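User: Continuing from earlier, I have the next pair ready.

Assistant: Great, send them over.

User: Here they are, in order.

Assistant: Folding the first of the pair now:
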Amino acid sequence: MNIDDGQFGIHNGVDCVDSGWLTCQTEIRLRLHHSKKSPVSITKKKYKKSRFRIKLMLQGPEEEEEDEEELSHSSWHKMPTTLEISMISGNGYKSRHSQPECGYALEPSQWTEYSIHTMDPDNLELTFEFFEEDLGEHVVQGDTHPGHVGTACLLSSSFGESGKDTGVVTLPIMGRNARQTIGKVRVDYLVTRPIPDLMCDMSTSFTKYWRKRGALDVGHRGAGSTHAAKHHKVRENTITSFKSAAKHGAAYVEFDVHLSKDFVPIVYHDLTCCISTKKKNDKTSLELIEVPVKDLTFDQLQLLKLAHVTAMKVNDPKDLLDDEEEVDEHQPFPSLSQIFQAVPEHVGFNIELKWICQMKDGSWESNLSSYFNMNTFLDIILSCVLQKAGKRRIVFSCFDPDICTMVRQKQNKYPILFLTQGVSEIYPEMMDIRCQTTQIAMSFAQSENILGISAHAEELLRSLQYIREAQSKGLVVFSWGDDNNDHENRRTLREQGIDGLIYDRICEDQGEQPNIFKVEEQHSLHEVINEETMKSCNCSCYSVPCSTAPCTASKGRAGSAESDSGLSSS
């Protein structure tokens, strides 16, 4: 008898193997791109008009020879350092484990990235070799590297010395005689480390899993943005808001998570908030001061009377004066742990990981140019989610592509969507070229093997074909933005097969009803009851009348006609 074991990693004709997650190794990424300007600046007149090809070479520490008996147990299990190169553009992506002899040329619309996995992240010599593409350099007889004009060297130990896991370094490009510089190269770096004391396994993984249904309803900041829907009585991003959305059939609730000064994961949308000071000898007048949320401890945030930053522009401190005796579930700044405890488990969480963004003009969101250490930030939030989530469905999202990359590398349980605004008339253009168009966002999501993208409704409604295009590339597509608050726009996006819709006022558009996951759970339970009842009956012709198992699933589905997609652990 011949048994066909199939081919490793192939399921239903599809290659299902990926790089997994970080365990004991560190990932170093070096990137060359034209987000600000060309990463290569040439000062030597001879090469001013030359085009270059670049190749990255790795050199690890020299190891002393040891006798076989002296080899430690750990050295047997030490993994070799690996290098992979990827090139991302609006036209797609390429990923390679090897480079041509003279490397690759840089393109203005392309993001070039070198990924290094190593067990020894502080002892690598990373060398960029520069080759003149048109061979203007005089070729010497027998030259093993024709066109080679210079070298730029980077020591991986400099990342640890700087204390930063992400940043930019500028390296001199040394000519072949090693006595003169011919220019400089700007290199972005990102260092991703595994979460300390966390052991992931293959028992459950939803990083690329999506059970296709229809469009899924996601409650924006719970029951909706307080400031987008001023008539709304429930404050956004509060336990009350999330519970309200849950009662009205939201499959997921969407909210932003960042850290307080004392590293507590908190739920709040803006990077800053307003605190008030009373003027001397004036009991009624208040002055508002904008303060970064990251500069206040969790206890301090609980004591704040909250005002939105827009109150400063109109000098309207009414938020600080109203609702003096707010109950706990109406209070802003709940901790992520409190949200997990308070919101029913059948309601999924779309957790946006809040991070600062740089605009094309060089400015930073909320004027914050520095933030937490990226590894520390994610380790705290991911650990909280992994410990508290239970059976709840979780989808992460973020506007920062590096955060998306890190989430994918640090754990293998929950998926992430890359948030993109694309080409917008509402929001300023981002600095990072991976954020500038929906097409390159798709390429980035594919290259990182993440679940998909969450695209701005403004651009999707202009270019509806992006939905099908992304899905044809194996990506899940959510939509966000004020345009989703219009019922006709949501209907249009549903007809195009959108996977998820994030919008406000979900409580006004739908009556109280179970969400799609609760309906499916009830439906499955009724099927089991019916099956067991039939088995227990002696009559072979027995059938279960409708009154035996009330068909509440039908009623639930009718009430949530718009709610029809999502992750499922079944």
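And the other member of the pair:
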Amino acid sequence: MDVRFPPTVMLIFSVMAVRVQSHGIDGGIGCAGCTLVVSLAQQIGEMNNEPIIEAMQRLCGFLPSSYQPACKMFVTEVEPVVQRLIDEKLFTPDVACHALTLCSVDPDQKQCHLYPLPAGTGLATSLSRVLSSGKAREARARKMQKLGSDICDYFPVLKEICQFVYERVDDHDPVMDADVDRFSVIETLRGTHFRGRDCDDTDPSIHPGAKPIDGDRQRDSNCNGIYGVDPKSGSPYEELLCNSTTQLGMILLGDSAGAHFHIPENWVSAPDISLGAFEILPQVLADEFDWPYLSAMTGYKNSSLVKWPTDSTYYKFWQMDHCNHRDYQNLGVNGARSSAMNSTIQYSMARDQKLDHPALVVYSLIGNDVCNGHADTIAHMTTPEVMRANFHSTLQFLDTRLPPGSHVIATGVADGRILFNTLHDHIHPIGKLRSDVTYEQLYDYLDCLQISPCTGWMSSNETLRNLTSERAADLSKAIEAEVHAYKSKNFDVHFVRFDIQDVMKKWVKEGGKAEDLIEPVDGFHPSQLANFLMAQQFWEDFEGIYPQGIVKRNPHNDQIRQLFGDQGGY
């Protein structure tokens, strides 16, 4: 795969990165990122018996070539500070990032640090030796800010492009979409990794999931790769091979779990990092760290970059009926909760009641209505009344978009106590070399910076974990109540209890380990293996709801493969 991108796309990456820098306190995400990178460089130096500055340069060399100049410029800028800390025997990743002003101690806040501070010396004393005055700190902060300044402000000529990107990213539509039908011809930037590939990006009537135009005699209007006329009968292939089946699209309205958020483990584990580890960095950034093409709902291919195969609801739809090819939309958004779904995300769904086939919509927000990084986390959780009202509004919206014969399945909110219970005393990948960082320590560090994905569950406070799960259970009851009360015009609606613990118990019974099902880097999301197993569990749930089968097996599948091969791929 060619992962080198043109300048416009590199600009988009920069815009997306800048937009998350302000989260948290005491430096927030920027502080945590600095601490992890400096720690990784320190460990690489230990492994290769070289000074940390050389290890930082080595780490820069692991990056794609387009990222290396900025990385090396950063190393050159920080070298004097890092070297002085080493000379003074004050160096730790936390102290270094405070000295670089990427970390701070905000008024009335705690000192956040992942590693022990220098023996016999507090953080303030350590910093006073390298930043002797407030003016020195301000000067250092200005230099660091310049290195990471908002590219849109630094180059005013790019402001119009930046505004375009902001709007598309906020709307969760494909950034590259010439005919504005919400389907794209490129993989990333909310393209074909999230939605089926558009087969004509100049005509909005042509897109995955559309009913065929004139039987697709002349062209493929629904992008499933089936078109033309049978020379013997004179009938369109679309009619011969697809009309006897019930075609059904797969649409996820979800969060980062449904989009399959994933950070490669070898990015943060010093013993596992290697040249080429970051080759996929541009793609991962452009996909917002999501891997929907490997997910439990819309996955469609296997990848050598992960350890486990892919299975999904969409893939099973395609296996049952090849006429469903490319008819998937993964509208999973990192951090999505019911209010965001109701106000923006759902409107990026592409479906026309008259011109498109029916679809299965899975409404699955499994955590963010109780998860946040605030210190007073419970006060920022969604209440059951608001959850039900938001879900009701989404159902009303779906009634205006989904074709008759569609289906909606809503899942409950997860019980996330399993995260801490499973991982708290395990070593995190950043501590693999020296066995010096547990998940509990990392959770507490992220909590201190108020950037934890879920303060309520990723906490050493058992009472808080239990209260969070109680609220999650109440939200699930609210969703289920609305499922039973709602009267739809165009779809049936059902509730499925989401409990990854059931999947985990089955896996452990088969000889696996519970931690295999949790993403190792963030310690929060379902892993690739969990997505594979959840796809199977969801299919069992669907079979229970639709005993006659939600999708019928197409008797013409073999003929479709013979005539159209891979149907144009993805």
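Worth noting for the second one:
DSSP finds 21 helices and five strands in the chain. The first strand starts at residue 249 and ends at 254.
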